[in-house]
Amino acid sequence: MRALVRIASWLYAAAVYGFIFLPVVVLVLFSLQATSFPIPPFTGPSLRWYDAVLADTRLTSALVNSLLVAALSSAIAVTLGFLSAWGFARFVLPGSALLRGLITLPLTVSYLIIGMGLLVLFNWAGVPKSLLAAGIGHVVINLPLCFAIIYSQMGDHQINIERAARDLGAPEWKVLLLITVPVMAPAIFAGFFLSMTFSWDEFVISFLLTRFDTTLPVEIWNLLRSGLNPKTNAVGSLVFAVSIVLVVLFELMLLRRKPA
């Protein structure tokens, strides 16, 4: 009976992981297709379509745009998230529970709703569609995530270290920069890399708030409008690879945090 349970468990696990990763495996496999159609039989491996992606100036420009928007918006989001978390953790504020709920509220709202709201707001304010507008949108959706990660890691032992620094005569800005930030560095970097992961492959807000200069997910959507081809698979594989790297970095930051 135990053997049957063990076999059933392994089969269930294989089915779950197969359901999750099989589309990705197919995507990567047919990005290496040598012919012009991503259909069986497989005629590879070949890097022909990766060369085509790197030779396409629109795709490479969109790739650079995605990296810039993801890096800058994540840096701003994690900075604002850290300062907000530090303020709520270290000071008694009236209605702090309500304010914390308002900060994390965008986590429960659809990106489509946030994007449409920002589009209406920017049209009213006269802000044109651009990478800047998309970056602001990414800050809006990633700031609550960074705040939640950093705030959850602020504990009493850090308060004692900060108090000791103040007792030794350190001004508040030095306590913040030389004590709090280094102690919270794993949580800060974890928030940054996870924010970059979400920003890197975000489509809806980028689609609504950009026009001429676009991000890579928007360019992929433009490619898909003309039908599937191995070039699309190659771009998707590159996006997936970058996302995996960012997630691994995020996990490494969490592992660094656990021993503390």
UniProtKB/TrEMBL annotation:
InterPro entries per record: Bact_Polyamine_Transport, MetI-like, MetI-like_sf
Keyword Transmembrane found: yes
Keywords, ordered alphabetically: Cell membrane, Membrane, Transmembrane, Transmembrane helix, Transport
Main location: membrane
Family annotation (SUPFAM superfamilies): MetI-like
Record membrane topology: Multi-pass membrane protein
Record-level GO cellular component terms: plasma membrane
A Pfam family recorded for this sequence: BPD_transp_1
PROSITE patterns, A to Z: ABC_TM1
Span of domain ABC transmembrane type-1: 63-250
Record GO biological process: transmembrane transport
Record has Transport as a keyword: yes
Transmembrane feature ranges: 12-32, 67-89, 101-125, 131-154, 175-200, 234-255
Compartment(s) where it occurs, according to its Swiss-Prot or TrEMBL record: Cell membrane
PANTHER family found in the cross-reference section: PUTRESCINE TRANSPORT SYSTEM PERMEASE PROTEIN POTI
Family named by the database record: Belongs to the binding-protein-dependent transport system permease family. CysTW subfamily.
Protein name (record): ABC transporter permease
Species whose genome carries this gene: Mesorhizobium mediterraneum
